[in-house]
Amino acid sequence: MWLRPPREPRQTLSLGRIVAEAVALLDEEGVARLTMRRLAERLGTGSTTLYWHVKTKDDVLDLALDAVFGEVPLPDAGGDWRERVREVIGGWRAALLRHPWSATILDRPLMGPHALDHTEALYAALAAAGLEGPRLKAAAYSLANFVMGSVIMQVTAEGHGDAAAFLRERAARYPLLARHGLDCDWDAAFADGLGFLLTGMRDGGGTGAPT
Amino acid sequence: MWLRPPREPRQTLSLGRIVAEAVALLDEEGVARLTMRRLAERLGTGSTTLYWHVKTKDDVLDLALDAVFGEVPLPDAGGDWRERVREVIGGWRAALLRHPWSATILDRPLMGPHALDHTEALYAALAAAGLEGPRLKAAAYSLANFVMGSVIMQVTAEGHGDAAAFLRERAARYPLLARHGLDCDWDAAFADGLGFLLTGMRDGGGTGAPT
DNA sequence: CGATTAACTAGACCAACGATCCGGTTCCAG
DNA sequence: CTGGAACCGGATCGTTGGTCTAGTTAATCG
């Protein structure tokens, strides 16, 4: 009785605290080391407790991924539509690259509120440019897929750094790959690719091309 | 002695058999159900035996993924460069979609012999169009990333089929998304996006634009 | 005020996993 | 004949995601 600690303040473990700590843990140690036990330990509680707030571990990952999307600011309307698209897509890329683990868990539906908000913003920016119908859909589709693929490939390449040497050794068999696959300026390549898409959807065939 | 089975023929477990069986198992049951034990069982052996041929489970996945790339035929030279690029990229997409599990393990270096062969072929097709230097690199970069992102997004969407209904319920908050996110003609959207990229790298600024 | 209920916490436990240890067997080169 | 490399598997280790059961706190309602 008298040895009892002087009334611990209630932890008030909340979904928000769990997600924030999960993101921190993922940032520091990567996706492979995120376990319910370790996460609970960092939160000063037991692993079982987490399952009151969350149904499975996948829920934690879903929430963490959406939290990453929540970091990127929504673009303000107005201005050149191309600039707005660059803003949205570039914001996604920056946020995902800031948390490299997120690129490795992109194989799940992006249905969190933040992800949906930003996807809607992308559609809005494209619709403001005059796109509509299947052409609008194709534009959003290709932009979103391009940025996802870019982030995954960059994170993968940077995470396994010996790829350059590996390619150099096989320059005889893969000459073009060895010449251009190294010395990566990721940002420039990304900007160029985005430029291809934007001018392509301006000049491409079909109806409803933006100005 | 007398109870001994009449001389089982040597299993001759080889890397090829392991990879083939792994692909079959992945096709039938998905990536989550690929375990070394189950794979060994299907091969009529013990799980330990696999570790003689393979260092870790990741090796199996690496090999299986490269086997998928091995399915797509290399394009023959000649003809319109745009058609050849469509052939390469479309081949990747078809093979990856034929094995949906492959899209979820794309977050690893694509350094298998088949993957490298096809990447080199992509560079060759673009170089034949007159591209070179950073512009060639940006073209290959954007095409590869576009197709990877497309496959991942499509597989993800098709694997969790209730997304459409989910969006319909939230049509008030995400009007554009609800209107265009459903009724997906994936092939058409992909072809359109690929068209954007191809015309973009023809008409885009800079030097060395192909004809 | 007392009782019920929802929110919250934890220890013990389960089946399954990747991986390893150790011991055994087959086969071929020297 | 022999030694070593290739090949095989039972038992086992430590860890994981998840559940069962049981306990405690805080707010609500009659």
UniProtKB/TrEMBL annotation, chains A, B:
Organism of origin: Nonomuraea pusilla
InterPro entries: Homeodomain-like_sf, HTH-type_TetR-like_transc_reg, HTH_TetR, Repressor_TetR_C, Tet_transcr_reg_TetR, Tet_transcr_reg_TetR-rel_C_sf
Protein name: Transcriptional regulator, TetR family
Lineage: Bacteria, Bacillati, Actinomycetota, Actinomycetes, Streptosporangiales
Pfam family, one: TetR_C_1
UniProt cross-references to PROSITE patterns, sorted A to Z: HTH_TETR_2
The keyword Transcription is assigned to this record: yes
Limits of the HTH tetR-type domain: 12-72
GO BP: negative regulation of DNA-templated transcription; response to antibiotic
Keywords: DNA-binding, Repressor, Transcription, Transcription regulation
Record feature DNA-binding region, as residue ranges: 35-54
